[in-house]
Amino acid sequence: MLTAVKNQGRVTFLSIKYSVMREMINKTTFITNILFMILNNACFIVQWVVLYSLQDQIGGYSFTQVLLLWGMAAGSYGVSHFFFENAYTLSDQITEGKLDAYLVQPKNVLLSLITSKVKTSALGDMLYGYIMCIFAHVSILHYLLFTFLSICGGLILTGFAIVLGSFSFWIKKADMLAETGNGWMTSFSNYPDGIFKGVVKVLLYTLIPVGIVSYLPVSILSEFKLPLFGIVVGFTILMVVLAFLVFYRGLKRYSSSNLMGVRM
After folding, report:
1. For the CA atoms of 221, 223, 228, 232, what is the dihedral angle to 10 degrees?
2. How far apart are alpha carbons 126 and 60 in whole angstroms?
3. Domain ranges of the chain
C-alpha cells in the first residue's frame, strides 16, 4: 500500500515537472506571463485603496484584511491552476472522449489527467499572494500558515472543479455548469463576506465553498482559532475524497471516442 502511494506520488511529481519544463522552453514567454499576472492582479487593488480612503471598513473588513483576502484568493487559485490545470477541462475531456490515453496507463487516471498540464501565469497568482502578505505586515509564522491554507484552498478549488466536471458523465452540456460554478468561486472570493446576506451567504459556505477557501483563512490569519482551522482542513479532505468518488463513479459510464493518442 505504502509503496503504491509512494510510486503514484513520484509519477505525479514527474508529470508536473515535465509539464513545467515544456512551458519553460520559451523562457521569455514563461517569465512574461508570470509578471503580467502579478500586474493584472495589482490593478484591482487600486479600487480598494480608493474605497478605503473614504471609510475605515467595508463589509466588516479592514484594508489589511482585504489585502489578505486577495492574497488568499490568488494563492489558492494559483495552486489549483498551476498544479492541476486540467481539472478545469474535465468536462471537455469527457464529452469529447479524450480520456482514452489516460485509461491505458498503469497509474491513477484522475491524477494523471489533472496534472498533465500547468498554467504558467498561475505562478504569478501564487507570488502575488505572498506580496499581499508583505503589505499586510504578517509574521514569519503567518507566511507558513498562509502557505498551508493556500494549499488547502487550491485542493478545494480543484476538487470542486472535478466534481462539476464529472457531471458530464451524466449530463449533456455540463461544461456550462462547470464553467459557471468555477467562475463563481473566483468572483466571490475577492469580496468581503460581510457584504453578502441571507441565502447567498449560506451558499458561499456550503454549495459554493468560497467561505472555506478565502473567508475562513482570512479570519485564521487575522486571529488564529483552532476550530476554524479544523473546519478548513476537514473540508479539504472531504472535497478531495468527494472528487475521487464522483469521478470514478462517473468513469464507469464513460464512452470512448476511439481517438488515437499517446502521452509521453
Report:
1. 0
2. 26
3. 2-251
